[in-house]
Write a structure and sequence with these properties.
heterodimer, A: globular, B: mainly beta, 7-stranded mixed sheet, globular
C-alpha cells in the first residue's frame, strides 16, 4: 500500500530562518513525488515535482530513495511562505495522487 | 485562460438531504478528479474520469456518493442522505490526460452538514 506521512502538523519559523518540511513515503517501486501549496484563500497549486529538479520560490526538495523521504527546504523563509503544504505521491503509471495530511507553516516577522 | 471552477463555493445542508456539487474543468482537459479535504485528514481521492467514463471509483466512501460527467466536460458529484461525517471541502482537479500530467485544482466546495 502507498502512504505519505508528514509528521509535523504545524511549523513556525522566524523570517530569514531556514525551514524544512518533512515527508516520508512508502511505495513498492519508483513513485513520482510532489509538493503542493495552498496559500490563504487560494486554490491548491503545484509547488514542485521531483523529476523536474527545479527550485521554485527558493524551495528545493531532494528525493532520498534510501530513506524514502522527500523533504522540502528553504534556506531563508519569507512571510509570504506562510501556507499549508502537502506532500503527494503518484505511481509511475498511475493518475491519482496520494496526499499527506499537510503541514501548516507560519513565518513570523 | 480560465482555471477549474466549482460551484457552489459553500453549501450548508441538513442531515439526510441530498446535495450536488459541480465542477467545470479546464477546456480540453480529458481527465477529471474529485478529492475530499477533511480537517486533519489531508486530501483523499474519490473518483477519476477519463472523458465521460469513470475507470476508478475506488475512493467513493459509500454508495451514497456518485458522480457523473457529461460531454467530456462538466462533472457533478452527488451525495445522497448526507451525514455529518460528509462535512469537508470537496476539490475537483483536471489534467490534459490521466498519466504523467500536472493536475490543476479548483477552489473547492465547502460542505457543512448540520
Amino acid at each position: 500500500a502507498q502512504r505519505v506521512t508528514q509528521p509535523e502538523k504545524l511549523l513556525s519559523v522566524f523570517k530569514g530562518a531556514p525551514v524544512e518540511l518533512k515527508c516520508n513515503y512508502s511505495y513498492s517501486g519508483s513513485p513520482e513525488l510532489f509538493w503542493y501549496v495552498q496559500y490563504s484563500r487560494q486554490r491548491l497549486q503545484l509547488l514542485l515535482r521531483h523529476i523536474s529538479r527545479e527550485s521554485i520560490k527558493g524551495f528545493t526538495a531532494d528525493l532520498n530513495k534510501g530513506e524514502t523521504s522527500f523533504h522540502l527546504k528553504k534556506p531563508f523563509a519569507q512571510e509570504e511562505d506562510s501556507a499549508m503544504y502537502y506532500c503527494a505521491l503518484r505511481g509511475p503509471n498511475d493518475y491519482k495522487l496520494s496526499f499527506g495530511a499537510g503541514t501548516t507553516v507560519t513565518v513570523r516577522a | 485562460g480560465a482555471g477549474v471552477s466549482q460551484s457552489p463555493s459553500n453549501k450548508v445542508t441538513e442531515k439526510g438531504k441530498d446535495v450536488e456539487l459541480r465542477c467545470d474543468p479546464i477546456s480540453g482537459h480529458t481527465a477529471l478528479y474529485w478529492y475530499r479535504q477533511s480537517l486533519g485528514q489531508g486530501l483523499e481521492f474519490l473518483i477519476y474520469f477519463q472523458g465521460n467514463s469513470a475507470p476508478d471509483k475506488s475512493g467513493l466512501p459509500s454508495d451514497r456518493f456518485s458522480a457523473e460527467r457529461t460531454g467530456g466536460s462538466v462533472s457533478t458529484l452527488t451525495i445522497q442522505r448526507t451525514q455529518q461525517e460528509d462535512s469537508a471541502v470537496y476539490l475537483c482537479a483536471s489534467s490534459p490526460s490521466g498519466i504523467g500530467y500536472e493536475q490543476y485544482f479548483g477552489p473547492g466546495t465547502r460542505l457543512t452538514v448540520t
